[in-house]
Amino acid sequence: MAKSASDKTNKDRAGEHGSEPSLKGTFAAVMLLGAFLLVSWLGVFVLYMARN
């Protein structure tokens, strides 16, 4: 019985918010940030190795 009440509550919540938003833009932003961090780290590492 508790399971059916929980299912009804979850359905009601899903109806209030509609479908979930697309996260493609978020994924792209995270990938760009990761690429920037990787390139920055590699640049500093190469600079360190060149001066050593």
Describe this structure in a few short sentences.
It contains 2 helices and no strands. The protein has 52 residues and is mainly α.
What would you say this structure looks like, in words?
The chain is mainly α and 52 residues long. The chain is built from two helices and no strands. It is rod-shaped and about 65 Å long. The termini are far apart.
Which features characterize this protein?
52 residues, mainly alpha
Indicate the topology.
Elements: H1 2-17, H2 24-51
What fraction, in percent, of the residue positions are helical? over 70%
Please indicate the percent range of residues in DSSP E strands (runs of 2 or more).
under 5%
Radius of gyration: 23 Å
Average of pLDDT: 83
Distance between the termini: 70 Å
Content-based structural category: mainly alpha
**Uncertain stretches of 5 or more adjacent residues:** none
Task: Choose one word for the global shape.
Answer: rod-shaped
User: How many strands, which pairing sense, and closed or not: the largest β-sheet?
Assistant: none
Strand tally: 0
Task: Specify the number of helices.
Answer: 2
Query: What letter string, H or E per element, gives the SSE order?
Result: HH
